[in-house]
Design goal:
A: 7 helices; 2 strands; B: alpha+beta; Glutaredoxin; Glutathione S-transferase Yfyf (Class Pi), Chain A, domain 2; globular; Glutathione-S-Trfase_C_sf (chain B)
């Protein structure tokens, strides 16, 4: 019907626009609600952190679609990336400035994406944070923020981990 | 030590080319440090220069920036190429994500195994002419202005031009059905800093050839 700009979803109707492209949508929401850092340099840092976390989330998103024979290898890949490349960076950031959030004392887009990624990885590997004490504390802090706490409760719009039915549905809709 | 941004990447287009385009369009002179071997990459990684152990990396304004999108966002905002308000920025972001997706397809072609090349080529022509180009053609048609967003030159215009030219390298007549994109291409190519960037001797990189692929693979894999 011409509603989807590049014929793809996600699409979000917001403030009179039909927005496409995940990053564009997230950027818009982040700026509008002051979750993007207070100046250009903080924004640059936020962008870097967010993009790194996005790369990790991307591997996790693709995981349920792995063929059965590749599942174990891919799971191992997720674990390695998380524990060798991404988590150490954020563990260090938090340790170095000793503050509650990645970008100083106010929660930002980067913090929300990091908690999302942590919880998604933990679903597959419950002990993954065992060597990251700062991230453990961060996870508890973020989970207790009122808006996030609410989102983490049953009945919220948060979606459950992907299962067989989800994979089938996606493949059917996108005719892959 | 100069105040110019310093780009760290291999001597080819890859993910750094869009950054080169944007710096050039903004009239910013930059230096380049080319990775020739895996050792060069390892040196950067071990030196703690790469936040997520990856390039592109750009030293700019006292930061060692990584992640192509983060770098592009910073340059665009700093040089007023990102629209005048949040809504223009949203439009620019959407358009730019589209050109990025298409550019990615184009960029990956030389790295496809021989038996996948034909299929990949067919896909990129199909996506370009059926999914992406029609959108930008329509945008230009709807508002009749010279630039994609807000009647003002922005990163969206730069990135679209880059993508159009790259697509034409694959199929010379790929813009045949898109008269407004053809005019757009001519118009944006004539903007002085861009015109300069398109001339021989500039820092624009040539298309990646088959023969370059093994060297690049060795650096990164």
């Amino acid at each position: 019907d011409g509603v989807l700009m590049f014929q793809q979803v996600p699409m979000v109707e917001i403030d009179g626009m039909k927005m496409m492209q995940i990053r564009a949508i997230l950027s818009y929401i982040a700026v509008k609600h002051n979750r993007y850092g207070k100046d250009l340099k903080e924004r640059a840092l936020t962008d870097m952190y967010v993009k790194g976390i996005t790369d990790l989330i991307q591997i996790i998103i693709m995981f349920p679609f792995s063929p059965p024979e590749a599942k174990e290898k891919n799971l191992d890949s997720v674990k390695k990336r998380a524990t060798n490349r991404y988590f150490p960076v954020f563990e260090k950031v938090l340790k170095q400035h000793g503050q509650d959030f990645l970008m100083s004392n106010r929660s930002s887009w980067a913090d929300v994406q990091l908690i999302e990624a942590i919880l998604a990885v933990e679903e597959k590997m419950p002990a993954v944070l065992s060597t990251f004490p700062q991230l453990q504390a961060f996870k508890i802090r973020m989970s207790n923020m009122p808006t996030i706490k609410k989102f983490l409760q049953p009945g919220s719009p948060r979606k459950p981990p992907p299962d067989e039915h989800y994979v089938e549905t996606v493949l059917k809709i996108f005719k892959v | 030590m100069s105040g110019k941004p310093k780009l760290h990447y291999f001597n080819g287009r890859g993910r750094m080319e869009t950054i080169r385009w944007l710096l050039a369009a903004a009239g910013v002179e930059f230096e380049e440090c080319f990775l020739e071997s895996k050792d060069d990459l390892t040196t950067l990684q071990k030196g703690g220069f790469l936040l997520f152990q990856q390039v592109p990396m750009v030293e700019i304004d006292g930061m060692k920036m990584v992640q192509t999108r983060a770098i592009l966002n910073y340059i665009a905002a700093k040089h007023n190429l990102y629209g005048k308000d949040l809504k223009e920025r949203a439009l620019i972001d959407m358009y730019v994500e589209g050109t990025t997706d298409l550019s990615e397809l184009l960029m990956m072609y030389p790295f496809q195994p021989a038996d996948k090349k034909e299929q990949h080529f067919a896909t990129l022509v199909d996506k370009a002419t059926n999914r992406y180009f029609p959108v930008y053609e329509q945008v230009l048609k709807d508002h009749g202005q010279d630039f994609l967003v807000g009647n003002q030159f922005s990163r969206a215009d730069v990135q679209l031009l880059e993508t159009l030219l790259m697509a034409e390298e694959y199929k010379a007549d790929i813009l045949a059905k898109f008269p407004l994109l053809q005019k757009f291409k001519a118009r944006i190519s004539n903007i002085p800093p861009i015109k300069k960037f398109l001339q021989p001797g500039s820092q624009r990189k040539p298309p990646t050839q088959e023969k370059d692929v093994p060297k690049v693979m060795k650096i990164f894999y």
